[in-house]
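#help-structures

NK: newbie question. if I give both the sequence and a SMILES, will the prediction place the ligand too? trying with flavin-adenine dinucleotide
OV: yes, paste both and it writes out the complex. here, I ran yours:
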Amino acid sequence: MRDVLIVGGGPVGTMLACLLAVEGLDVEVLEQRTEPSMRSRAIGIHPPLLAVLEQIGVAEDLVGRATHVEEGTVHCDGRMLGRMSFSALPTRYPFVAMLPQYETESLLRARFAHLRPGGLRGGVTVTDVRDRTDHAEVVTDAGEILQARYVVAADGARSRVRESAGMPWTDVGGRQTYLMCDYADTGMHGDTAVLYFERGGVVESFPLPDGTRRWVAITDFLAPHASSGELADIIRHRTGAAVGEPRGVASAFEVQQRRAHGLVRGRVALVGDAGHQISPIGGQGMNLGWLDAAELAPALARAVADADAAASALAAYSRRRMRAARMAMRQAGFNMSMGRPVRGVRLVARNALVRTLAVPPTNALVARAFTMRWL
Ligand SMILES: Cc1cc2nc3c(=O)[nH]c(=O)nc-3n(C[C@H](O)[C@H](O)[C@H](O)COP(=O)(O)OP(=O)(O)OC[C@H]3O[C@@H](n4cnc5c(N)ncnc54)[C@H](O)[C@@H]3O)c2cc1C
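OV: that's the protein plus ligand as structure tokens.
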């Protein structure tokens, strides 16, 4: 019997696995994929998470590979409305590290393979979970039954483990659609993150390693067949900016915010997107999941070491991380509302608000919120 079985070897599952291995627990990860996903989703890694990556010995490699964003600017109608700097943040890492999610996942997987060789099994789909009071069991698609003291669902927003454990999941609302693509960086914005709050809706642009820039634009509807050229036209039409050659295809996504009612039920705990799906606008979903992992690892270590302390350690994890998820969702909801298409008096009011948020002392608070210093 393992101490902990983690279902899902995405960024949050592997981060938790590394933290538990460092704590000395017997942990195994079950992942349905046999090959890593090359979809680039998360790109921004915030300062508190760089400190967590330090605990597992990954920060140096990741920071060395990533592009460092030290400031962001907001524009409308060809004028800069405000500037937000991260360089004064009281941290060893006063920047947001930008790296495609598949590269981050690859660093985490390599680290876990080093900490616990063979500890991640690919090609294993978990179909069911059962709480047996003094331990838990997972059932795989091959009919295997595996036992552990605790099972963690890190299997993403469509979590089968959450469903199988009977843990409810609520839609929080706030749907929007976007189109995104990576292009060669023309060098116009250096390493600055740029938000264009235009009448037709927001366009966002972020630097990535290897001379690449990610561009994201809000759309009126989900456009799964739109091309990188069509996105380039939207960007040029709304902002006047020209992008470089496409590096990959455009992808359309719909933002949804949903969360579980609690993150623990008996011997099953939820972590990351399995517990809360946050809008990517603001770039916090993966980071929030890592903060969950940083709290869940010591709670599980305590629960394994001392059965009498288990219930309160896990309940505290659930309470604190649900509060953080609610705050992150509110913040993401605010980010989304700021980026909606807007005209007339509403545009004037929105721009006045942006200017207010961009001057001291509010800009320091906004920088703290944006970089997740209170989640
Ligand atoms: C377009 C976009 C941009 C984003 N940008 C950012 C950003 O800049 N910053 C940020 O912090 N977040 C961002 N996010 C959110 C981020 O991608 C997610 O929050 C993150 O991937 C969640 O990680 P996870 O490990 O919880 O789940 P997932 O990444 O979904 O991983 C779950 C894993 O579980 C496996 N799995 C699923 N079911 C089973 C099963 N039954 N058995 C075994 N294995 C299973 C899957 O194969 C997968 O590997 C973005 C998301 C999108 C869509």
